[in-house]
Amino acid sequence: MSDLLTTKQLMDLLHVDRTTIYRMLNDGRLPAVRVGGQWRFQRAAIEQWLAEQHPGATSEPKAITSVAPLPPVEVLPVYCLQPIQEVFAQTSDVGAVTTDLLGKPLTPISNSGAFCNLIRSTAEGRARCEASWQKLADQKDQQPRLEKCHAGLTYARGRVVVRDQFIAMFFVGQFVLDDAKAARASTRLAQIARACAVNEKELARAAQTIRVLEKARAEKLIHLLQLVADTYSHIGEERLDMLTRLKQVAEIARVSTG
């Protein structure tokens, strides 16, 4: 039985979520067997499958995700993502944005507060925000967790995975946990103002509007965050299937008229 992998072990190996594993099973893309009503995966069969997917690659996760990366701009239609993001941000009273893995926004920021708007009004501020977003692309934990950005606010990211590739991130943030005193401290604000090239007095005024969330509520929020990211993943899968079919139709038309 040691040669049989559980679903969790396969998730860790491939760096994908459970939904993706089940989708691949339903599509017949993964070799699997039933043991006591549970899916199990023969190690040798998975290794062979990996070799077939990426000839010459090892079973290391990076070898899987680094092959032929999908362009998120093509796969994730902003007109579909933005309304979902807007509703989530407004109902949860947080800021939200979707970015690529370099931290570059794919959507406008939803429900952005005055503090972050001021920081992002300068090139220096925008660069620091994008660096904070990009940092979480390298985070080993697949599930969201609460982090602090360059300005001391709390944020978290959900992974958007399409065809087993991590292609984008859905972020919520622009709040602090339980108490805003540290975020509003004058010495801290002076440092941020200098680093982001913004007016210190204006930043201090904007800091008074920073949202404060109880930690328990924020923990619940990040569970919902990943559900939204999973929805994005489903949209991306459908979009990619449609694009593939359109390319096939175009190729058939080209051949028939050539």
Mean of all residue-level pLDDT scores = 85
Rg from Cα: 22 Å
Shape: elongated
Order of helices and strands: EHHEEHHHHEHHEEEHHEH
N-to-C CA distance: 56 Å
Any overview of this molecule?
By secondary structure, the protein is an alpha+beta fold. The chain has two domains: 4-65, Arc Repressor Mutant, subunit A, CATH 1.10.10; 72-241, Beta-Lactamase, CATH 3.30.450. It is built from eleven helices and eight strands. It has helices spanning 7-14, 18-26, 43-53, 61-65, 72-75, 78-92, 114-119, 123-135, 186-196, 200-207, 215-257, and strands at residues 4-5, 33-35, 38-42, 95-99, 147-148, 154-162, 165-177, 211-213. The strands form two sheets. Strands 4, 5, 6, 7 and 8 form a five-stranded mixed β-sheet that branches. The longest helix is centred in the C-terminal third of the chain and has 43 residues, at 215-257. Mean pLDDT is 85; it is low at 56-67.
Give a brief outline of the structure:
The chain is of the alpha+beta class and 258 residues long. The chain contains eleven helices and eight strands. Residues 56-67 have low confidence and may be disordered.
